[in-house]
Amino acid sequence: MEKKTLGSMIAELRKENGMTQADLAEKMGITDKAVSKWERDLSYPDITTIPKLADILGVSADELLKCRTESKETDKKENLPLLITRAIALAMGCAVTVLSITGKIEIKSGFTLLGIGLACLAISLFIDQKD
């Protein structure tokens, strides 16, 4: 089985067993909203319910827990270049706006700052498409 998030694994196994989120929720004694949150990786089942969940889905608890978890820290590190380029673009736009309103910027300098901002936006689009 390929590495998946716990939520995607629960959704896949639920569908393979021909169950709706409401069906699984009823068997687990929880709400269908809780199942929805699990499947979207917004929350996770309580550890004490894993054996019951695995049994309902027709897999062992070990197999269910062999999924990968999405680390927020890893995601932050991977998206750092994207975040930096977007922040620079935003900063350039804000700087030009404020300096223009206050009359403290020359046209040439304003265009230079906006050019830097646009270049950063182009780089961020490239980074975003690469992922």
Question: How would you describe this protein?
Answer:
- InterPro entries: Cro/C1-type_HTH, Lambda_DNA-bd_dom_sf.
- Residues 10-64 form the HTH cro/C1-type domain.
- It comes from Candidatus Ornithospirochaeta stercoravium.
- The structure is a single chain.
- With 131 residues, the chain is mainly α.
- The protein is 72% helix and 0% strand.
- It is built from eight helices and no strands.
- The protein has helices at 6-16, 21-28, 32-39, 50-57, 61-65, 72-78, 80-102, 107-130.
- α2 (21-28) crosses α3 (32-39) and α7 (80-102) packs antiparallel against α8.
- The longest helix is centred in the last third of the chain and has 24 residues, at 107-130.
- The chain is rod-shaped.
- The model has no long low-confidence stretch (mean pLDDT 87).
Supply the key terms.
131 residues; Helix-turn-helix transcriptional regulator; DNA binding; DNA-binding; Cro/C1-type_HTH; mainly alpha
Compressed to H and E, one letter per element, the order equals: HHHHHHHH
Cα Rg = 24 Å
> What's the pLDDT, averaged over the residues?
87
The rough form would be described as rod-shaped
**Gap between N and C termini, in Å?**
23 Å
Low-confidence stretches: none
**Overall helicity:** over 70%
- Percentage of residues in strands: under 5%
Class by helix and strand content? mainly alpha
> What profile does the largest beta sheet have?
none
Extended strand count:
0
**Continuous helix count:** 8
Compile the SSE list and pairings.
Blueprint: H1 6-16, H2 21-28, H3 32-39, H4 50-57, H5 61-65, H6 72-78, H7 80-102, H8 107-130
Helix pairs in contact: 2-3, 7-8
